[in-house]
Inverse folding.
């Protein structure tokens, strides 16, 4: 199941807060429920560079599934540079995975690229490495997550 989230801001408009809430019905392995996520982002354009931050809570999604959790809380900091037709960025942050047996924390970091297809549509791809496990050295869910997103400018 894939979700497409539309935002009212363009790639060039990093000066405003961008809150978002999405809810979708999900049916996995014979269970039905409601998956919720919340995201708040804020960014600032500084010439050809941008800095931004994102706070997220997810009960479904790529990262929540990848770290084998029921819910994740994420804090991400992004820094990027406008290379003309495309914008490249790095992501640093942390993830807290909530399960029925407790919570696990770990870092996440990655690289991404945002490319406008036309005036109204942009595509973003991001490769994240994440580790959300106990600090006692036992095995932890870790790996990479590749996400591709589309955003529409209204």
């Amino acid at each position: 199941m894939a979700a497409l989230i539309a935002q009212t801001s363009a790639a060039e408009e990093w000066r405003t807060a961008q809150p978002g809430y999405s809810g979708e019905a999900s049916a996995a392995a014979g269970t039905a429920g409601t998956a919720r996520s919340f995201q708040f982002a804020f960014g600032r354009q500084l010439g050809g560079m941008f800095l931004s931050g994102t706070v997220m809570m997810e009960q479904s999604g790529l990262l929540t599934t990848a770290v084998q959790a029921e819910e994740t809380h994420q804090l991400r900091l992004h820094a990027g540079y406008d290379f003309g037709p495309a914008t490249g960025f790095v992501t640093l942050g942390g993830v807290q995975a909530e399960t029925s047996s407790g919570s696990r924390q770990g870092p996440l970091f990655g690289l991404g690229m945002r490319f406008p297809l036309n005036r109204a549509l942009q595509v973003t791809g991001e490769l994240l490495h994440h580790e959300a496990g106990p600090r006692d050295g036992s095995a932890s869910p870790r790996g990479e997550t590749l996400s591709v997103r589309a955003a529409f400018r209204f």
